[in-house]
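Whiteboard transcription, Tuesday session. T.W. wrote the structure tokens on the left side:
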């Protein structure tokens, strides 16, 4: 009820904060770990994709993707906030520019946070307020729903392709020059395998 007022008050009192995110819950009241994240470096993404973060949910090494070691009820500096809720400072946007239109549905929030951090602004997780995020609503698919129809299957496939393509776009834009060519090859091979796995999973899902 008081989310916008409290977030605005925090931003006004902390002029070095360029972006502010809040504690998110799903339609059933469960905390959504994507409320706070790290940048998906090859190492962090590897631990996430291959399940290490799930095996060691509180580890500072293996669970950096969703910052599982960080108390979800405490305010902290983070690297990535979700596009579902991000209060932005106009001065920061004036300096870094708006959303990169090369991204579709996924990745644009990570790119925006990256540019904000690169230009010296803080990105803050502010759990003193909370919102309900109905995941999948923008695509017409609610994450709480278990039913798989032909139409939703095709949407899930298209979104799986979009999400993995976003990984490649972000990597090319920000990190391709920082990592050796061998690392880049491995990253793109991993993204390709992940895309294939996700497509097959949705194609073969039972209705």
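and on the right, the sequence the group agreed on:
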């Amino acid at each position: 009820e008081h989310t916008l007022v409290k977030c605005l008050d925090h931003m006004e009192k902390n002029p070095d904060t360029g972006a502010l995110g809040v504690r998110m819950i799903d339609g059933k009241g469960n905390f959504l770990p994507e409320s706070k994240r790290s940048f998906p470096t090859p190492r962090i993404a590897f631990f996430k994709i291959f399940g290490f973060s799930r095996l060691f949910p509180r580890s500072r090494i293996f669970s950096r993707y969703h910052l599982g070691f960080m108390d979800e009820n405490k305010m902290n500096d983070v690297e990535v906030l979700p596009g579902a809720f991000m209060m932005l400072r106009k001065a920061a946007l004036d300096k870094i520019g708006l959303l990169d239109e090369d991204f579709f549905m996924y990745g644009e929030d990570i790119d925006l946070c990256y540019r904000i951090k690169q230009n010296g602004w803080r990105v803050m997780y502010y759990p003193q307020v909370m919102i309900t995020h109905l995941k999948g609503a923008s695509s017409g698919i609610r994450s709480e729903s278990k039913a798989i129809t032909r139409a939703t299957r095709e949407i899930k496939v298209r979104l799986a392709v979009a999400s993995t393509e976003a990984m490649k776009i972000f990597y090319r834009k920000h990190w391709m020059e920082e990592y050796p060519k061998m690392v880049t090859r491995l990253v793109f091979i991993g993204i390709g395998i992940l895309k294939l796995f996700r497509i097959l999973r949705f194609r073969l899902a039972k209705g």
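Someone added at the bottom: Residues 101 and 193 are 25 Å apart (CA to CA).
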